[in-house]
Write a structure and sequence with these properties.
By secondary structure, the chain is of the alpha+beta class. The chain contains 9 helices and 8 strands. The protein has a 6-stranded antiparallel sheet, sandwiched between helices. A two-stranded antiparallel sheet has the order 1-2. The protein is elongated, with a radius of gyration of 24 Å.
Length: about 250
């Protein structure tokens, strides 16, 4: 039984790598089994909708069942549940607060937060909203929107100066977004709250889109340039792990 399951999975992998299809002989050769065995496995997979036969040459391709399976998996992905243990580890490793946010109506919404033991009071709390243009998480998401969406956002947003460091000019923001996309992470250098610095990075979903981001946040006296620099590799490892669990695959 285990051997049959293993062979069936190998067939699915083979068909994934050969989207134009494979015949019974090709499948048998790849699995190093008799044609009768390969045919029996293909018939079973076809019966359940995982492969489909096309043309008169009995060529097999992946079946429509995978569309249904993909929809079900994506529909039931829970970003908070997936990310929770990973961001808890990031907070423990850095000793700072970690935020998970999602994009909603040209703002970010804090959907999870892992606190540290600091008594420093920070703006964020789960359910609270913040602008895109002056938060590290917001800029991480905005940097991966297309040019038309960014220009539309800049045209519609009312820039408010929260601190003397806040971006209030669309051209400056665009330059910053280009830099963020190039390096893969963003900073908030007291742009939203005085005395608070953050570094953030985007999370990619199975389509390659960015709807979520994570930040590491702390007081300015602790989040020195040196500490920020040492935090970045840990942050990037974290968002990559979460992105993979959300179905993201590089080089698609």
């Amino acid at each position: 039984m285990v051997q049959s399951v293993d062979r069936a999975l190998r067939i699915l992998e083979l068909l994934k790598e050969n989207p134009s299809g494979q015949g019974v002989t090709e499948v048998a050769n790849a699995l190093e089994v008799a044609k009768s065995t390969a045919h029996r496995l293909l018939l079973s997979l076809e019966r359940h909708g995982y492969v489909q036969k096309v043309g008169r040459e009995s060529t097999y391709r992946l079946g429509l069942k995978f569309i249904e399976m993909n929809y079900f998996v994506v529909k039931h992905l829970n970003i908070v549940e997936i990310a929770k243990p990973i961001i808890e580890k990031l907070s423990k490793d850095t000793g700072e607060i970690v935020h998970l946010v999602m994009l909603d109506n040209q703002q970010v919404v804090y959907i999870d937060k892992v606190d540290n033991q600091s008594s420093i009071r920070i703006y964020s709390q789960v359910g609270r909203r913040a602008p895109l243009y002056c938060t590290a998480v917001g800029k991480s998401i905005l940097a991966y929107r297309n040019e038309e969406e960014v220009l539309e956002y800049i045209d519609q947003v009312s820039f408010k100066r929260f601190t003397e460091h806040t971006f209030v000019n669309g051209e400056d923001l665009i330059k910053e977004l280009h830099a963020i996309k190039k390096r893969g992470f963003s900073y908030d250098n007291e742009e939203h709250e005085l005395g608070i610095r953050c570094v953030a990075a985007p999370i990619f979903d199975y389509t390659g889109e960015v709807q979520y981001a994570i930040s590491v946040t702390g007081p300015e006296n602790r989040m020195t340039d040196e500490i920020l620099k040492s935090t970045i590799p840990k942050l990037l490892e974290t968002v990559e792990e979460i992105s993979i669990k959300m179905g993201f695959q590089k080089n698609i």
